[in-house]
Amino acid sequence: MFDYDLATIKLYWAKTEQPCATFDALVDIGYLNAPASKGHHLAVRGGLARHSMRVAQLLLETRAVPEVSAYRIGMYHDLVKCLCYKPSEGGGFEYVQPPYPGHGVASVLIAGDLGIHLEPLERAAIVWHMGAFGLDERQMEEYKASLRKWPVPIIFTHAVDHLASVQEEVEAKS
After folding, report:
1. 60, 88, 135, 137: least buried by Cβ within 10 Å?
2. Is residue 76 domain-resident?
3. What residue numbers bound the domain in which 93 lies?
4. Around Cβ 66, how many Cβ atoms within 10 Å?
5. Closest-CA residue to 48 (of 122, 121, 103, 100)
6. What are the beta bridge partners of residue 94?
7. Is residue 1 part of a domain?
8. What are the pLDDT digits (tens) for 98-150?
9. Residues with Cβ < 8 Å from 31, sequence gap 6 or more?
10. Would you say residue 95 lies in a domain?
């Protein structure tokens, strides 16, 4: 199992080369307490941080993007989950519609709101990390345009995010 503690999270965050205030901003929006999902992979307090570090680690192993980009994409690809999963009274989490459209777009916008700098390829990888699932015709054309410009970061981010999710579900069952 991929383990973590606050020191490990800070180490991964430091590799993103962001100003110190951004770590405090992440804490303030609930990054350390948010689940990675409502009812699937790492649907537990702190699951988002664990999942994000795993995605960063897998991206590093692929060498598909520069090191700093692997850390930024991994750590920030699901920032929207800090806003859309809230603890429920009966345990677990409930979904709250975030004030932004689209999972990846929302995460990029939240990063900007927090003062997190992302390079264009990092933004594209985060925006499209869910792949082509559920895209309408216009969105598919936008996705294809991004793929033409940044095929490796987008495809590998989608693949490692999915792999991390599957690994986390398998580990939870064992």
Report:
1. 137
2. yes
3. 6-173
4. 13
5. 103
6. 86
7. no
8. 888 788 999 999 999 999 999 999 999 999 999 998 889 999 999 999 999 99
9. 48, 49, 79, 82
10. yes
State which amino acid sits at residue 74. G
In the chain, where does DSSP find H-type helix? 6-14, 20-28, 47-62, 67-76, 81-84, 103-113, 120-127, 137-149, 151-173
Query: Whose CA is closest to 165, among 45, 61, 78?
Result: 78
Q: What are phi and psi of 2, to 5 degrees?
A: -80, 115
| CA nearest neighbour of 80 among 25, 36, 143 | 36
Structural domains in the chain (count): 1
Q: Is residue 73 part of a domain?
A: yes
What are the structure tokens assigned to 68, written together? 């700093």
Q: Helix (H, G, I), strand (E, B), or coil: what is residue 117? A: coil
Q: Helices 120-127 and 67-76: crossing angle, nearest 10°? A: 40
pLDDT digits (tens, 9 = 90+) for 84-103: 988 888 877 888 888 887 88
